[in-house]
TrEMBL record:
It is an enzyme of class 2 (transferase). Its EC number is 2.6.1.16. It comes from the Bacteria. This is Glutamine--fructose-6-phosphate aminotransferase [isomerizing]. The chain holds residues 252 to 611 of 611 of the full protein. It comes from Sphingomonas aurea. Keywords: Aminotransferase, Glutamine amidotransferase, Repeat, Transferase. It catalyses: D-fructose 6-phosphate + L-glutamine = D-glucosamine 6-phosphate + L-glutamate. Residues 37-174, 204-345 form the SIS domain. The keyword Transferase applies.
Length: 360
């Protein structure tokens, strides 16, 4: 492993840097990788399942299928799936798992298979149990991920799920928001983010690493981004962060806000989604009105925010609407990484965590 690390201090940052390559790999996959699964999904009752970060990829998939393909998809975390849902013989389960060995996910796959549903598996490990048992195995080919935290594999899974949504949409005669060139444009901007903006994100993370309580907020396709980013931040920094949809805040948790409370906001591009943008703006104003502090990740913010509104703001590279969650996810990964490095955490093997949870 030491040799593989090269000049990087940790596998986590090495693997974050490799994300753009993982995206290019997905962009270069021929349509035939996705077509058989898409053919089945086109007429099936669709469900997603995954655990931890892979669950949040599934949540993104749920938005992609709805917004790109006009298809409703169920999505439950693998550990709760069977308490909530079952699939019949017209079902198709999209099971997402980096390792392909996660106990909870494999149990859901087994049950779905027994019920006659088709299995689509998205995995990074060739020959894994999930790949072998599925009807439509899709291999991520993101390269080995050594760090316990999923980084490049999460983005690669997201790109694959987006391609599946695009293939399903194409079968229904439309695929707005599914231009294949977008993935290559994303890869180029990921390089810009990791190479040029990492120092800026590092400075913010170092300045605020002592904050003990955080909200991570997003809306629409940025809500799974907030959820995954908070998970990553907690895993590696050991600091408490609570993720929620921006619109949920006013239903209770806003009472936590005071001048000691910090929020990370994943702000959608106003040009892509003016409605979500307006909702997020309103939530952030409510936080500021109560003395809360905000770190914003966004693009071309219109002048709805006064100078000094943000404690810190990072302008992210602009990409198309459905690529933006992937840019924002990597910004969140960099924030978690730099914060944890400064705190002296065990970056590649955080306490109590294993790369794959293969037991009940
Ligand atoms: C990710 O950073 C975590 N270590 C964890 O949530 C992980 O995503 C989860 O255990 C699922 O693993 P899998 O993708 O291999 O199934």
């Amino acid at each position: 492993e030491v040799a593989e690390l090269g000049h990087y201090p940790h596998f986590m940052i090495k693997e974050i840097t490799e994300t753009s390559e993982a995206v290019r790999t997905v962009a270069a996959m021929p349509g035939s990788v996705f077509a058989p699964a898409a053919e089945r999904l086109a007429t099936a009752d669709i469900a997603f399942c995954g655990a931890g970060s892979s669950h949040y990829v599934c949540m993104l998939g749920q938005y992609f299928f709805h917004q790109i393909a006009g298809r409703r998809a169920m999505c439950h975390s693998a550990d709760e799936f069977m308490n909530l849902a079952s699939l019949g013989d017209n079902g198709a389960l999209i099971a997402v798992s980096q390792s392909g060995e996660t106990y909870d996910t494999l149990r859901v796959m087994e049950q779905a298979q027994a019920d006659g549903a088709a299995l689509v598996a998205v995995n990074n490990v060739a020959g894994s149990t999930a790949q072998r048992m599925s009807d439509f195995p899709i291999l991520q080919r993101a390269g080995r991920e050594v760090c316990v935290l999923s980084t490049k594999s999460v983005i690669s899974q997201t790109a694959i799920v987006w391609r599946l949504a695009a293939e399903v949409a194409a079968r229904a005669g439309g695929a707005e928001g599914a231009d294949m060139a977008d993935l290559n444009a994303l890869a180029a901007q990921l390089d810009v983010l990791v190479q040029s903006l990492s120092p800026e994100i590092k400075a913010v993370a170092e300045r605020y690493r002592w904050i003990e309580h955080w909200f991570f907020l997003g809306r629409g396709i940025h809500w799974p981004v907030a959820a995954e980013s908070a998970l990553k931040f907690k895993e590696v920094s050991y600091i408490h962060a609570e993720a929620m949809p921006a619109g949920f805040l006013k239903h209770g948790t806003i009472s936590l806000i005071d001048e000691k409370f910090f929020t990370v906001a994943f702000i959608p591009n106003a040009a892509h989604d003016p409605e979500s943008f307006a909702h997020v703006v309103s939530s952030l104003h409510e936080i500021r009105a109560r003395g809360g502090n905000i770190i914003g990740f966004g693009h071309d913010l219109p002048s709805v925010f006064a100078d000094g509104f943000f404690e810190a703001y990072v302008e992210l590279p602009s990409v198309s609407k459905f690529m933006d969650p992937m840019i924002q996810l990597v910004a969140g990964e960099l924030f978690a990484y730099h914060c944890a490095v400064k705190l002296g955490r065990n970056i590649d093997r955080p306490r109590a965590l294993a790369k794959a949870v293969t037991v009940r």
